[in-house]
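Hey, weird one. I pasted the Phage gp6-like head-tail connector protein sequence into the form twice and got a warning about non-standard characters only the second time. First submission, copied straight from the form history:
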Amino acid sequence: MEMQNHSKLTIDIDTTELTPAQLRAIKTINMLMAHIITTEDEADFFDGTAETMRLCASLVKQSRFCHQDSSIPYGDQALEFAIEALTELMESSSVVKYDN
């Protein structure tokens, strides 16, 4: 399989139901992902990864689903579930690949 060299990636997202803060977070996550994938600096790599995960967690907790019943901490439960899944992947040394 031949890899093509692309200089730009455009992502279309329907933003009609997103707040300005959510839009900024999504833009920041995309920028951070591109940076941590390409950086050679250890501090940038670790700090960028932590910030990306923090922003993703923040967006999960801001989701509409989390606010449908405020007596149930859906955001916390979803994040705990995700952390458990990530921990299992790390412990098994599995890497999820989405390329065919």
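That's the output from the first submission. The warning seems to come from a hidden character in my clipboard, not from the data itself. DSSP finds three helices and no strands in the chain.
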